[in-house]
Write a structure and sequence with these properties.
Length: about 290
């Protein structure tokens, strides 16, 4: 687990731009400071239609290289995280509790899978913090802040998903809604968003076509864009984590959540490109 202060160059750029960003984040796994990301949120008790649409959209976004952001809650959030992982993509879970106190408890294994699969668990609450009711609206602003857009799948007019959509709009982010049956209570929220100008999300193409240019990883400092050596996704993650300071091998293992062979491959690749310097004591720094 690492602590990211708002002043850190590793702090997510999108999140820094929202009204009232958190002063501090606790992160387990890999959270790039700059990445393409879209939130998929909705009801904790979705219909089969809602579950199907959450899986369809999240898996499509993941295959397009977009990080799927959600809140690790039961229902739509869980479907979105699992679909992104199943598609071989990356997903970030923002918790309303501390990272050592995963809520809901039945999603502990899912949380571990997210962190180990190149994604991230994120919270602004102390690691042992309980899942208090007041935490979740604050959690929702981080979901919105980490995302270039928010997609609401299902929810009633008082749902947390609509709070996330409102916060996203206030932060200047795109809001999408999945149209639903007029006689379904869980379609009231998305249909109301559509009536008020949200974009329609019938497919992943609707979302990708309606997004602004999504940010990608930043080239290493001191190397002009277009002339940087090619790096893999894992190698780019290591460069983001190192920033302008050194980290030892154990810190990199903890920060990435990767197995030993995966980290060794990334470090060896970076040393081969000349972008990474190995220092005494198994310490590493960007060249």
């Amino acid at each position: 687990m690492i602590r990211l202060e708002a002043a850190s160059p590793l702090f997510p750029e999108l999140l820094r731009d929202i009204p009232g960003p958190p002063d501090l984040l606790y992160v387990r796994g890999t959270l790039p400071s700059r990445a393409a990301s879209v939130a998929v949120v909705g009801s904790r008790k979705p219909t089969p239609y809602g579950r199907r649409m959450a899986r369809l959209l999240a898996s499509g976004l993941a295959r397009a290289g977009v990080a799927v952001v959600s809140g690790l809650a039961r229902g739509i959030d869980t479907e979105a995280h699992r679909a992104a992982l199943g598609a071989g993509g990356v997903t970030w879970a923002v918790l309303g509790s501390g990272l050592d106190n995963v809520y809901p408890p039945e999603n502990k294994a899912l949380a571990d899978e997210i962190a180990a699969g190149g994604g991230a668990l994120v919270s602004e609450f102390r690691p042992d913090g309980p899942p208090l009711a007041a935490n979740f609206p604050r959690r929702n602003r981080i979901i919105a802040g980490l995302s270039a857009a928010v997609v609401v799948v299902e929810g009633d007019l008082r749902s947390g998903a609509l709070i996330t959509a409102r916060l996203a709009a206030e932060a200047g982010r795109e809001v999408f809604a999945v149209p639903g049956p007029a006689d379904s209570a869980l379609s009231l929220g998305p249909n109301e968003l559509l009536r008020n100008g949200a974009a329609m999300a019938r497919s992943v193409e609707d979302i990708l076509e309606g997004l602004p240019a999504l940010p990608g990883p930043r080239p290493p400092e001191g190397i002009p864009e277009g002339s940087a050596p090619r790096v893999s996704t894992d190698e780019g993650t290591i460069l983001e984590l190192l920033g302008g300071h050194t980290m030892d091998f154990d810190e990199l293992i903890e920060s990435t959540g990767w197995e030993l062979p995966r980290l060794v491959r990334a470090l060896s690749g970076l040393e081969g490109t000349g972008l990474l310097t190995a220092l005494p004591g198994q310490n590493y720094a960007r060249t």
